[in-house]
Prior knowledge:
Elements: H1 6-20, H2 28-35, H3 39-51, E1 55-58, E2 64-67, H4 76-84, H5 108-124, H6 127-131, E3 139-143, E4 148-152
Antiparallel strand pairs: 1-2, 3-4
Amino acid sequence: MLRVTKLTDYATVLLTVLASRAGEVLSATELAEASGLEATTVSKVLKPLAQAGLVEGLRGVHGGYRLAHAAGDITLMQIIEALEGPLAITECSQHDSQCGIAQQCGARTNWRLINDVVADALRGMTLAQMLHPAPFSPSTHVHTRRRSITARVAS
């Protein structure tokens, strides 16, 4: 099963809270309350988001966190990379692959293509779009910069 980690999911939740209150500075405690997450988890997630430049931490009496960029300028790919590093569906889809059979593997090219399609979809989806999710459909069409993708959801 391919899925993002819980921390990446929580990062998206926290960022949508901040995006829904654009310009406001929220403390970690306020973010925990608004998101339903534990304060320790919120602090753990905010650190890599700040290091990646997605949120700004402000000190002082009225300190806290706010988005460092407009929600429309933050992509899901940036969020995932902040928490998990570069996207790699398989070991061989990384450019510096450590797979011992990568050079003779017949599937490597296709795995890299799949990795690129997923990466394009994640780059094409912004935090602003996450605030207003599209209605669920068994077949969803996603436009990215390089490709148009139709995904069918298994029931």
